Amino acid sequence: MTTKSYIPNYPRPQFVRKEWLDLDGEWNFSFDDGNRGEAEAWYAAFPEARKITVPFTYETAASGIGIQEFHPNVWYERTLELPAENAGKRAILHFQGVDYRAKCWVNGSYVGLHEGGYAAFSFDITPFVTFGAANRIVLKAEDSMDRTQPRGKQRWISDSFECFYVQTTGIWKSVWLECVSETRIDSVKMTPDVDRHMIRFDFRIAGLTDGLELTIDTLISLKGRQVKRFSLGIDRDLVSLEVDVLHEAAGPWLQCLWSPEAPNLFDVEFTLLRGEESVDHVYSYFGIRKISIDNGQILLNNRPLYQRLILDQGYWTGSHLTPPDEQALIDDIDWIAEMGYNGLRKHMKIEDARFLYWCDVKGMLVWSEMAATYEFNDLAVERFTREWLEIVPQQYNHPCIITWVPFNESWGISAIAKDVRQQKFTEGIYHLTKAIDPYRPVVTNDGWEHTVSDILTLHDYVEAGEQFLATYADQNSIVNNGISFNNYKFAWAEGYAYKGQPVIISEFGGIAFQTDSGWGYGNQVKTEQDFLERFQAITAAIKATPYISGYCYTQVSDVQQEVNGLLTEDRKPKVPLGKIREINLG
């Protein structure tokens, strides 16, 4: 099952135009350890180079290079021909992810710069290209081991250590191009309202000039049946409209909502008209669902939601942070569902938009988590804030995302327990996130030492179920800093207090089989029976604690030296997945 707009491998599946050019594949590539490239004008005359397969980074085997040593400056080059019939349109070059600082040239002319390894970005390269002829694209990617960069699980020393892995440098997500009209739909923000049976559209229009008479024609359908069609006049570059879809919806209202059990998605087509002429046509979709908190419970569509989540770091053996292909993303979601989980916490990574698409389609709940910095100063605050404020709008329309997680385990804010400045930083990010999206919970410091937070999330890798039950028997002591957990951590930072938030154990488990080549949490187990007994005992203890609203097990798959996955890094089950499912659903 897919949406009407689905195109295999399309990099931006929630905002689809039928004509596009895939620029993944072979590029020329060169290291620039001396940082000579700009002075020597490599953008005009590329040096003798090796080949690389984009979007895989040079550190990965899939790139064709497979060198894991850090190189701070890398260059890419390729040519492409733009069809002559597209002359008069705008050529938009899209990068879904480049780590960390990207500079772009086209036919020797400087186009622009973007900083941030996890947010998507684009350049309008129209002034620099020739339609009907070959054009040269050159990209320089600058990276560093600086801990003020949002870097997630990427190491900042020469060797991997603890839970930090080989760095990711340069292009690591898809590159593509589309030719669009001068006047076009730039974005559509879609906000569902379950209680009022509404969907709100916020249209942003690019290239609007005085005197243009424009309308947007919008067609909404569900399961192949037309639900609503309307037109909206455009007189400014940002216009909004709420639409009632109750009476036209195909079936009873509750059967039209999005949930893990029934991930209903409405198809929607937007046509921008100048008079009778269509100047832009965009395909999308939306899900109508509500995530809310009431009386200490998390609700989905006004019904209690018990979250059975699993930690997902999104690494693969031969390609690291980049999925080998779209099918690998689909397979991971299917593995997670087969194990009886209804959601995942995407850990320290902003995942490929195609992954979120398939979570939307398959009904997999997602916590979206920002990549951490590991130092606190003005530069780290600036870098983190700027990139997070790009990411939240880019992911806003996905119904699968039910929680934002900007911070984890005090990483990058290591003194937050007492440091007022770090506390105020997390408060600021919380409120900025709510300004963009007041409809989803925000967890400000997942694991412990919370400041303002909509959910109280606790990480605890205690091995024995009996010990967990003893520690968490008295809710008041846990939620009000009366006792510590997980090696002397406390729920709240100094000056903050529990206000009735739902409680979730958002990391636990991490069980590893006995090995000399990696690590897990606690003692390693020898046999399948040992594993299942420990997994069952700790999971049952959490589920038996009445004030806990859900859990997140560590983790889906092994990641390099961290071998505590339920699957190996190449996605082979370590224990029968049906038994994991029975424990989760029992």
Describe what you observe in this structure.
The protein has 586 residues and is of the alpha+beta class. The protein folds into 3 domains: 24-173, Jelly Rolls (Sandwich); 184-286, Sandwich (Immunoglobulin-like), CATH 2.60.40.10; 302-585, TIM Barrel (Alpha-Beta Barrel). Helix content is 16%, strand content 30%. The chain is built from 8 helices and 29 strands. The protein has helices spanning 326-338, 353-362, 378-395, 420-436, 465-471, 475-479, 528-543, 577-585, and strands at residues 21-22, 25-31, 50-54, 73-81, 90-95, 98-99, 101-106, 109-115, 121-124, 134-142, 170-171, 175-180, 184-193, 198-206, 214-222, 225-234, 238-244, 266-274, 277-286, 291-294, 297-300, 303-304, 307-312, 343-346, 365-369, 401-405, 456-459, 503-509, 548-554. A 7-stranded parallel sheet has the order 26-25-24-23-29-28-27, with helices on one face. The chain has a 6-stranded antiparallel sheet with strand order 3-2-4-10-7-8, with no helix packed on it. Strands 1-12-5-9 form a 4-stranded antiparallel sheet, with no helix packed on it. A hairpin with a 2-residue loop joins strand 20 and strand 21 (297-300). Helix 1 (326-338) crosses helix 2 (353-362). The longest helix has 18 residues, at 378-395. The two termini are 28 Å apart. The model has no long low-confidence stretch (mean pLDDT 96).
